[in-house]
Each structure stands twice: as structure tokens, then as C-alpha cells.
Write a structure and sequence with these properties.
The chain is α+β, with helices and mostly antiparallel strands. It has 15 helices and five strands. The model has no long low-confidence stretch (mean pLDDT 97). The structure holds a DNA duplex.
DNA sequence: CCCCAGGGTGGAA
DNA sequence: TTCCACCATGGG
């Protein structure tokens, strides 16, 4: 299946630390699982090619392709400090992920690096898919993890995050409606609810709300964002994460999350600072 | 040996 | 409120 899209940067989107379950092939395409089915993305020019049993509407929604980013681009180009990111990252979009997978994935992300998060994600998927006996290697459900044990998760390399993921899986599998409540409510209330999960603090909560619940005013402040924000907006002063978070939300409002994604990937690819 | 990675928790100040 | 030791693991 083919989708024509003149404003979508697949590589920047997939390489910007949003999802952990996709692998990049030598040919530059991305293989993974979506909605429990295998999928493969590749892009040439303005054409996105999708391998797998999916409708174009499903993929357009997944990649947020119908979101007009004009406001985001105006913001970035209006600030001379940020404008450079548009050169190579324009078309970077926020992936509208499954809520549980975003929740679990970013519990794994705390004080961790992307490479190792991807490895843990894969090892979890392989282990539980084998246990399930399914051909497709998909990420385990909350119920599957809940029926596991801390020593299993530690054996898969989660370290001290094992009890966090286990307890969160227990809660979600017993209270599946809790995720729908978070989706339906506003950012502030959703933030309080997500912060109540074990292993989730301010930074991970904003990632979950941004990537898993499409709360575009969320602004996750990790070490990269802290560095680039201190440098560009605070003269290198050692301001706190909370200060940066409040500043960004006040400055960029309902598209702070999109600005953050360009800042994060821009910093990591050395376009910024 | 050190520091770092898309940090969070619990307890002290 | 803010500060800080500690938490697993792997890479540099």
C-alpha cells in the first residue's frame, strides 16, 4: 500500500526516540509490529510504502499525517535559535502510539539509553511471544506481564525497573478503564493520574501523555532537553527541570510537545548546541 | 576506576 | 519545596 505525503520525514520520525520496537534495515526501511500485525515502512520522495495488512487511514492516523504542522513550523522558523532544525528534520511527526505500549516503554526508559531500551523491548517481546506461541513477535500485554514475575523481568535485563513495570502491569490489567479515563480527561488531570503509577515521575509522565495519549501540550524534560533549553533560553544557567518545563509550556502552549520533539532530535543529532 | 543513558524513589534538610 | 544516595545494566 502506498501513501502520498509531501510533508513527512519517516527517518527523523522513527529515529527520534519515540518508539522502541522498530528495527532499521540496511535499505533504510523500518520493520516492526502495529496492532499485533507485522508492518514495514519505507519512503522514497513523497511516497510512503507500507507493507502489511493496513488501511491508509490507519497509517495516516498512526503517523499523525493529517495534523497541519504550519503553527509548529512558524514557531521554529521564527526563533533563530531553533530554525536550523527545519533544514533536516522538517516533516518529523509525533507517532500516535498505543497507550499501554507507551506507558510500558517509557517506564523502561528511565536512566537508560535508547539502544538498551530497544534491546529490552525486543527481549520482552520475544519471551512473551514464545510463551504465547504466536508467530508475530509483538510487545506483551499488561495482562501477560502481570502474570509473570519480577525474577523473569530481571532476567530480561530490566534491573530495578522490573518491579515498576510489574506493578503497573498489575494495575492496568485489573483496571483497563484507567487508560480510557486518562485519554478522555485534560492534560493536568491526566498528568496527576499517570504520575500515580510506580516508576513514573514528571519526565516519563510527559512522554506517556505525549506519545501514548496525544496530549500535545506535554513537554518531557530529559537530560538532552535540559541541556539544549539551558543553553538556548537560560544563558547556560543551571535551572531546574521544573523551571524549563513551565517555561516551555508557557511559551509554546498546545504544541510544546512537537517543539520538544524537534529540540530533542536536533540536540541528539548535533544540529543544536 | 570513572561517567553516562529520554529518571524515579524515599528520606532528610 | 529542594536535595541527595541509591538503584541495574551496558557502553564509552
Amino acid at each position: 500500500m502506498i501513501i502520498s505525503c509531501d510533508d513527512f520525514n519517516l527517518e527523523a520520525t522513527m529515529d527520534s526516540g519515540q518508539v522502541f520496537g522498530f528495527s532499521k534495515t540496511d535499505a533504510g526501511s523500518y520493520e516492526g509490529v502495529l496492532d499485533g500485525r507485522a508492518v514495514r515502512f519505507s519512503k522514497k520522495g513523497d511516497t510512503l510504502s507500507v507493507g502489511g495488512a493496513f488501511t491508509s487511514n490507519r497509517i495516516r492516523d498512526y503517523f499523525d499525517l493529517d495534523h497541519d504542522l504550519t503553527t509548529v513550523y512558524e514557531t521554529l522558523s521564527a526563533e533563530e535559535k531553533l530554525a536550523p532544525v527545519l533544514g533536516s528534520l522538517k516533516g518529523l511527526r509525533l507517532i500516535r502510539q498505543n497507550s499501554w505500549e507507551a506507558l510500558a516503554g517509557f517506564i523502561l526508559s528511565s536512566n537508560n539509553n535508547v539502544k538498551r531500551i530497544q534491546r529490552i523491548w525486543r527481549d520482552l517481546s520475544v519471551y512473551f511471544s514464545g510463551r504465547r506461541g504466536s508467530a508475530v513477535i509483538s510487545f506483551p500485554s499488561a495482562g501477560e506481564i502481570a502474570s509473570s514475575h519480577e525474577r523473569i523481568l530481571r532476567g530480561l535485563g530490566l534491573g530495578y525497573r522490573a518491579p515498576f513495570l510489574l506493578r503497573t502491569a498489575h494495575f492496568v490489567s485489573r483496571n483497563p478503564e484507567s487508560l480510557e479515563v486518562i485519554r478522555a480527561t485534560d492534560y493536568e488531570d491526566a498528568l496527576r493520574r499517570v504520575l500515580a503509577f510506580p516508576g513514573i515521575g514528571p519526565k516519563v509522565a510527559d512522554c506517556v501523555l505525549l506519545y501514548g495519549f496525544q496530549k500535545y501540550e506535554a513537554f518531557p524534560v530529559d537530560v538532552w532537553i535540559l541541556r539544549v533549553m539551558r543553553s538556548l533560553y537560560f544563558r547556560g544557567r543551571r535551572v531546574s527541570e521544573r523551571t524549563v518545563h513551565a517555561y516551555a509550556r508557557r511559551r509554546w502552549g498546545g504544541h510544546a510537545g512537537y517543539v520538544q520533539q524537534y529540540l530533542f532530535h536536533g540536540a541528539r543529532t548535533k544540529i543544536l548546541v
